[in-house]
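Database export, one record per block. Field names are fixed; values are copied verbatim from the stored entry.
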Amino acid sequence: MADTLELTLENVGVMAVARDPALRAIRREITVASGDLRQARVEGLNPTLDATVFQVGRVGAEPREYSVALSGRIPWAGQRELRIDVATANLGRVDALVSEAVRDATLRARLALLAAVAAERRLGLAREIADASARLQEASQVRLEAGEISELEANLTAIEHGRIRARVIAAERSALETQAALRIAVAAPPSQPLRLVTPALAASALAMLPADSLLMLALARRPDVAAARRAVEQAQSQRRLAGREALPELELRGVAARDAGDESARLGVGVALPLPLIDRNQGRRAAADARLDQASDQLARLELVVRNEVAASHQAWRSAIAEADSLQALVLAPARENRPLLETAWREGKLSLPSLLLLRNQLLDAELDYWQAWEARGASLVRLEAAVAIPSAIREEENP
C-alpha cells in the first residue's frame, strides 16, 4: 500500500511542479533555446576549402595543374552579434514562459487543495447531520407508536432523513471529484491515500498594501509579463538583424594555383561582395516590423490584463475576508452550539417536530455557507498571490 501523501498549501505547489510531466516537457524548451544561442555564436564561422586538380596529357599521367582556395565569410556589419542578441532574448523569453507555467501549475494545485478541503469538510458535516437525522427518525417512530406524534409528523421525519442522505451522497461525489482533480494536479495515483491539511487563512501582509503597490509588484515580478517583454526585445533584435542582413557579408578568399609548366605555385587573395541591387531583404524587414508591432501590442494587452486581474483579485479577497469573518463570528459558532440543543428541546417537548426540521436545515445551510465562504476566501488569497507573483503567506493549522 502506498504511503499517505500529506498535502499543504506550502508543498502542494512544489509537488505539482516536480511531478507534472507536462512541466518537464516545457522545461526542455530551455535546452532547445540554449542550443539555438550556442549555434548563433558559431553560425557561419566555418571556412570553405575548394580544391581542383587538372589532368594534363594522357589519362593516368601525373596531374600538373591544381587550384586550392580557402575562403570565409565575414559578417562585417554586426550580423553575428545581432543573431546572438536574438537568441539571447529568445532564451530569456523561454525561461520566463517556463516560470509562468510553474506559476500556473502552482495556482491550480493550490486551488484544487482548497476545493478538496472544503468538500471534505462539507462531507463531514453532512454525515454528522445524517447521524442526527437517523436518531431523530428512530425517536419519531417510538413516539408514533406511543401516540405522541401524528403519522404526518413521522412521515416528515422520514422524508427529511431521505433528503439528508441524498445530501451525503452529493457531498461524497463532490469530495471524490475534487480529490481526483487534486490528484491530477500533483500527479498522485488513485490508490495513494491523501491527508489534507486545512490552512489557516490568516491576514497577509498583502492586506496592508494599496492596489497601486500590488500592481507595481505584479508588473515587476510576473513571468508572463517578463516573457512578453523578452518577446519585444527579440523582435527588436530581429528587426535590426533584418536591416543588417540587407548588407552583404564580405567573403575573403586565399588561392594557391599552379599551371602546367610552372615551377612554383601562384598565391593570391580574393574578395567577393554580393551587390544588393534587387534583393535588399525587403520582405524580411517588413515581416520583422510586423512582428515587433505584434509583440508590442501583445505586451500592452497583457499589462492591461494584469492591471484588471490584480485589481479584481484584491477586491475579491477583501470581500471574501469580510464574508468569511462575518459567517465565522456570527453564524458558525452559534450554529454548532444550537445543533444538539434542538434535538434536546424536541425530546423535552419544548419544540415541535416541524420547527425542529426547519431550524436544523437552517443551521446546516449556515455551516455549508461558511465552508463555501472559507473556500472563496482561500481561493481569492491564492489568486491574489499568483496575480502578484509572490510566495504564499498562508499558514497551516488544525481543523477550525
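Remark 1: The helical segments are 12-19, 21-42, 79-145, 151-186, 211-221, 223-245, 282-347, 353-388.
Remark 2: Residues 79-145 form the longest helix (67 residues).
End of record.
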